[in-house]
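To illustrate the input format used throughout this study, we show a single complete record. The first block contains the structure-token representation of the backbone; no residue identities are included at this stage. The design step must infer an amino acid for every position from geometry alone.
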């Protein structure tokens, strides 16, 4: 899930009788969020987390944060997605960090399609797909490469996220036109259906893109049902708020699912420096799995 730190959003002050987040409840939430989401919440985040979670208290009909902690104790998995959505902000766009897509179009996709033309599979994972802009942008360049080469390769994109709200929008595949600034006019015409009437100002992704993308809920810190191997993994703007041990474990797990020589794409402010010996830097926040 692509996130920003809790310090990046405005909290709603607790006033007018709103419940306060006490020491014991905040410590429980800090431990819970770190264990299940890999995000470390400092003491300075207390008021901000309190403001965001007040919405969950109202949604669940709870009177105080002690009751919310009890909900997490009774059913951690059931509430985890909404908790993660509450304390983080999904930030994404179509064709964000365009140099990654340029590498795919100019080098990687032609190479992979040629190598797999006699029956191989091509798999890309968007880990932290947020509301779907990233996997659908990947689907556009993949579909174009398949059309351009006439390839019949079995090619698919897996898109996962922890946030139920983000996944709901990704599955809907409908976006406001003002959110499509990164999509060229030619691609808008080719890969989107423009809304009319009550859907004016909206665009829906083409059915062909939906065919290429599988959207599933997944917590990166828990067990992974897929076995791979993947040719590329996009995990951009996800690990920036993880601590060093969590990043190391995640990168090791990614290495285990990538093809030899497979690629891992990180966000513009993320780095693998000093965190893994399984990858080599080959471009701007582009890493290749080392071949023994």
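Output of the design step:
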């Amino acid at each position: 899930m692509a996130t920003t730190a809790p310090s990046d959003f405005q909290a709603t002050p607790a006033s007018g009788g709103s419940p306060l987040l006490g020491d014991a409840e905040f410590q429980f939430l800090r431990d819970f969020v770190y264990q299940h989401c890999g995000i470390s919440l400092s003491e300075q985040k207390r008021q901000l987390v309190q403001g965001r979670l007040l919405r969950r208290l109202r949604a669940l009909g709870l009177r105080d944060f002690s009751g919310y902690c009890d909900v997490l104790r009774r059913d951690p998995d059931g509430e985890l997605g909404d908790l993660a959505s509450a304390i983080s902000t999904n930030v994404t766009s179509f064709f964000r960090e365009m140099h990654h897509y340029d590498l795919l179009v100019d080098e990687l996709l032609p190479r992979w399609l040629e190598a797999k033309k006699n029956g191989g599979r091509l798999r890309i994972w968007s880990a932290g797909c947020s509301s779907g802009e990233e996997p659908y942008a990947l689907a556009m360049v993949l579909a174009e490469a398949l059309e351009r080469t006439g390839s019949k390769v079995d090619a698919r994109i897996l898109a996962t996220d922890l946030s139920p709200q983000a996944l709901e929008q990704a599955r809907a595949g409908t976006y406001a036109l003002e959110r499509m600034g990164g999509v060229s006019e030619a691609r808008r015409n080719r890969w989107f259906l423009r809304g009319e009437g009550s859907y004016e100002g909206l665009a829906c992704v083409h059915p062909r893109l939906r065919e290429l993308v599988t959207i599933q809920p997944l917590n990166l810190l828990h067990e992974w049902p897929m076995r791979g191997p993947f040719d590329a993994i996009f995990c951009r703007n996800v690990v920036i708020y993880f601590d060093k041990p969590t990043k190391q474990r995640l990168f090791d797990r990614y290495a285990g699912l990538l093809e030899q020589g497979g690629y891992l794409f990180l966000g513009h402010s993320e780095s693998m420096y000093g965190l893994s010996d399984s990858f080599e830097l080959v471009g701007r926040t582009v890493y290749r799995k080392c071949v023994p």
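Structural context for interpreting the output: The radius of gyration is 20 Å. The first helix runs from residue 23 to 37.
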